[in-house]
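Whether sequence alone determines local backbone shape is best considered at the level of individual chains. The sequence in question and its structure tokens are set out directly beneath this paragraph.

===
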Amino acid sequence: MRAYAAVDLGASSGRVMVGRVGRHELKLTEAHRFANRPMRVPEGLRWDVLALYAGVLDGLRAAGQVDSVGIDSWAVDYGLLDADGALLGNPVHYRDPRTEGVAESVLATVPAGELYAATGLQYAPFNTLYQLTAARSTAQLAYARRLLMIPDLLSYWLTGRQGTELTNASTTQLVDPGTRDWAYDLAGRLGIDLDLFAPLRRPGDPAGELRPEVLEETGLTGPVPVTAVASHDTASAVAAVPAGDERFAYICTGTWSLAGLELDAPVLTEESRAANFTNELGLDGTVRYLRNIMGLWLLQECVRAWGEHDLGDLLHAAAEVPALRSVVDAGDAAFLAPGRMPERIAEACRASGQPVPGSPAEITRCILDSLALAHRRAVRDAQRLAGHPVDVVHVVGGGVRNSLLCQLTADACGLPVVAGPTEAAALGNVLVQARTHGLVGDRADMRRLLTRTQPLTRYEPRGGTDPWRAAEARLAGP
């Protein structure tokens, strides 16, 4: 067996996992986990990227000798470097309000239909395209000579080599999903200099070797290669969906829920744009056709507001609350910003004429019912828009631990749910590294290995979908 370090950075925590892979074996252990705490400074909300890098180094030290390192993280955010390769300030957080109102100026130059036809990305106010537009008059962007997405920035610090991994680049809204290259004409129309970006890399490409200073810091013996993986964590997670064939939908759960299909080609119709589906690039020429849903962020923010609450007790109490009493639109951008989440959920229920949840258990049940309802809509709409029927929904990521959410998703979709693996992004990261070294074969081989080695739980739908259809109609209003 060979050992691979997967650096997997989420919006609230980071981890370094060690995957040990053989021809018929796949074992994942946690070497180090660390917090990811954004900082609010006078100029806005920023990522503490130096703390993240320190966590990565601590994790590699704890991991011990490995055959390769791969890095994945959330999407859209970036660091800017000057001509000497030095970082120009902490990266801006995608929840920072600087992009408010920016989309209108972009769409005045490139209408929404043309923008979607060129990039296939759903509208999200924090897409890199809008962030760069918002930063246009800043001194920082004026001095910048290189832009690196978050995993590419950390890879650069580890190796001294710069690149832009494709699956994360595809979330910038500056990549053509058909050619899998930069959308040069679009960028030119919007005055965005694509020379800021380092050359594109594909998953499996070499990304350099750990620098001597990093080897000394971590105690590792070189050479230790860094391998480009599917560096958008959702791309790595989808690569680790243990599906038996192509007739599946996936829901990558965590701070966000990303619900959709794995396709061979993008869906760029006007109907798809109106439904707010995105076409992000995945492993081996695939397209992740999905809808972004606010996800467990809603519950995370509520728990933070409530203070000390045992999550297990909270979920147990929520299971006793009557189903579908009140629901909110879990994709509504009104829930994007942090703060006052219990009050905002209550206000949304009041505004739609539904019973107002008051207790933590009632609010939790409202959130979970709302997420399951959003999952139902996304899975149904994706099948219709792509002409791609499915027989099963795979739930991967942190939400796998939430058995109530998994069961509600099966009930809402009227389809069986297979839950697992929990650490899907890290496993996809590890498997791309292992495949580069010849230990596993194609995506189907990767998925067979996952099915044999990872714990999976199956949830069958209970009852009919009529109550969910009624809740959906109630949410839509008169």
